[in-house]
Amino acid sequence: MTYIAVMLVSALFIYFGNLLATRDNAFFAGNTKAGDFYKAKIISVSGEKSTKQTFGEQVVETKSVSITARLLDGVFKGDEVTFEYIIPDYAGGKVYPYRAGDKIFVFFEFDQSGNEVWQAADFVRDGYITAMVIGFLLLLVLFGRAKGLNTVISLIFTTAAVFFVMIPAIIKGWNIYAITFAITAYIVFMTLGVVIGVNSKSLSAGVGCLCGVGIAGIITVVMQNLMKLSGLINEESYFVMFINPQRPIYLPAVIFAAIVIGALGATMDVSMSIASSLEEIALHKPDIAYGELIKSGLNIGRDIMGTMANTLILAYVGSSLNVVLLMLAYNRSISTIINREMIAVEILQAVAGSVGILLT
């Protein structure tokens, strides 16, 4: 009964949360407009031509082809469009040319005369992504059996909470700090309730996880003010700020949400690892003294601490590797690099999340 109650409450939270977050939210009204992406299948690629342009003493040659594609979805489904596509020339990258039969995303803009001008955006990759994710979920069920199935269910609920409740709520202009706290608490207790069940082990792990994540959040807010972080860390930040002109998104709060959600998975892992280990000790040695059990928990935590702290540090370094490469290439001073807001935010993410793990 408890398991069913957790599942029911989780589903109701997603349903009503999404209903409230998307109600009167123009960004989720589903209106067709210029700039929307549509799936299309390439019918033919022809007419390759080369154009040379002179910039000072440098001559730049660009190649383009004519693409005809049939739209596969949306209000234009079944229509055929033809457009010119400039073939990119990346010295350090690998370019996959568009060929007949490829599925791609296309979009249109209006020219000065009000005519639709179609362009290619990217390859359609969701089929391969879906197959990869399904394979991962099947492996979870294969190796974890009942626990694996519950893990898959919790992943679905977690993903739904972030994409169907949290993000629409932020775009709508809700308080980001409040919605982050609500989603965090939901994910923690839903995951532990579905995967482990409602018992003393999951309760202690949940409380420990929330305390650790809470500390990470407090550190983030304090350091944001001390370091005078504006949240304008890259080009995307400017666009995010003006998504909803009526209720502009507060960028420092977005950083807060990113750090808390980013640290949540690791702290939940640590809290459950310690709680589960201690329960096994207590089951196999029921006469163990309370002080000895705490000491064992601290020893287990110390072993976990080093690798989990590295997990967050390496994850954030990996996600910002391109930025680090650029800054090291064009700045000789390490001090200049770490004082850039973009890098300062990455360091804050790593440190605040790691402190949350230590205190979990």
Question: What do you see in this structure?
Answer:
- The chain has 10 helices and 5 strands; from the N terminus they run αβββββααααααααα.
- With 360 residues, it is of the alpha+beta class.
- It has a 5-stranded antiparallel sheet, with no helix packed on it.
- The chain is globular, with a radius of gyration of 25 Å.
- It starts with a helix and ends with a helix.
What topology does this entry show?
Layout: H1 2-22, E1 38-55, E2 58-71, E3 80-87, E4 103-110, E5 116-123, H2 126-172, H3 176-195, H4 200-226, H5 235-241, H6 251-284, H7 290-319, H8 321-330, H9 334-338, H10 341-359
Antiparallel strand pairs: 1-2, 1-4, 2-3, 4-5
List keywords for this structure.
globular, alpha+beta, 5-stranded antiparallel β-sheet
Let me know the average pLDDT: 86
Largest sheet: 5 strands, antiparallel
Decide which structural class fits the backbone: alpha+beta
Beta strands, count? 5
> Low-confidence segments, ≥5 residues, pLDDT <50?
none
Series of secondary-structure elements, N-terminal to C-terminal: HEEEEEHHHHHHHHH
Distance between the termini: 30 Å
Shape: globular
Discrete helix count? 10
Radius of gyration: 25 Å
Strand order of the largest sheet: 3-2-1-4-5
The level of helicity is 55-70%
Q: What fraction of the residues are assigned to beta strands by DSSP?
A: 15-25%
Concise synopsis of the structure shown:
The chain is an alpha+beta fold. It has ten helices and five strands.
